[in-house]
Amino acid sequence: MATTEAVGTGEGQEAAALLERTREAVNPRLRRTVEGLPGSMRRVAMYHFGWEGADGTPAAGNAGKAIRPALVLAAARALRGPGGAEKEDRGKEGRGKEEDAVRAAVAVELAHNFTLLHDDVIDKDVRRRGRATAWTVFGIPDAVITGDAMMALALQQLTEDPHPASASAATRLANCVIELCAGQQADCAFEQRPDVSLDECLRMATAKTGALLGCACALGSLYAGAGPDEADAMDAFGREAGLAFQLIDDLIGIWGDPAHTGKPAGADLIARKKSLPVVAALTSGTAAGAELAELYAGPMTGDDVRRAADAVDRAGGRDWAQAHAADRMGRAVQQLSRAVPDLGAAGGLLALAEFVTRRTR
Fold first, then answer.
1. Could you give the CA distance from residue 225 to residue 165 in angstroms, rounded to a whole number?
2. Global confidence as pTM
3. For 94-114, how does the pLDDT look when each residue is reduced to its tens digit (9 = 90+)?
4. Is the distance from CB of 75 to CB of 219 less than 8 angstroms?
5. What residue ranges in the chain does DSSP mark as E strands?
6. Residue 83: CB partners within 8 Å, gap ≥ 6?
7. Rg of the chain's alpha carbons, rounded to an integer?
8. Whole-number Å distance between alpha carbons of 188 and 243
């Protein structure tokens, strides 16, 4: 796992700049949309995004990294091809411009935060983005209902968009969320099973994480005028990059610094989650894997968490996850080249993919 932030590299600097531009483009519409929620749902959502405190007073705000909306906008730019900026200036009104995809980017970010609100309840997570999760502040019913409303807002962004790609984008997003929910359901079921295979875990992670990243890339390409084959290739790129993202996220869930993650050290181990490095270790056939299985059979104390992390490492789970993340990124680039043969036009997408697979928090 990388020991320095990706932002220190050239790709990381490009990605950081792209994420900042995305937040500047997306957050105003995102905030206006959230502020339109009625009553207590607005209060919960504004708190969740970091724009207000629990008492409704203004807060500095930390609405997240904006990786998924950045993928939408970067995909829209990539599909314009060589001379993209010049072509953008010549584009017909309402067609082919990166800013036309802002509604789609907002929709993807709302869908993502729908999952976060629900995941925090399901996983009983008490910290997100450095402060108490919404359900611990407002209660489970309000957090779940607000998440539902965010998903409705996401589809509303697309169904009310006059862009010619909006209908197909709404269908893709709806199908993606169904797949994502199936992945979440499988993830929950795995926690009750002692015999989860690595292939099952990979399929679950692809559905739970890769599907939405793939959808983000596909939506961006559709808003740039791409056909179904190009959109499918972009979806495949996002899915492969999403699986690499999940592998890194799973490593952070075990070895991430609480000062950076906002969660306790070894949070995934405390919850006895069947994350990818853990399943790789459990199925390794090693003594360390057997030790980990024994630890996972009961509640985790502080010392148990440290022992479990060491067992995952000794059983090869950490090395496997790092190597598999790199392999998936190689596959992602192959898929991207199907939609964008001149990868020079896809610099933003590649920088984002590099960023999420080299991050340490």
1. 8
2. 0.89
3. 334 678 999 999 999 999 999
4. yes
5. 127-128, 131-132
6. none
7. 20
8. 18
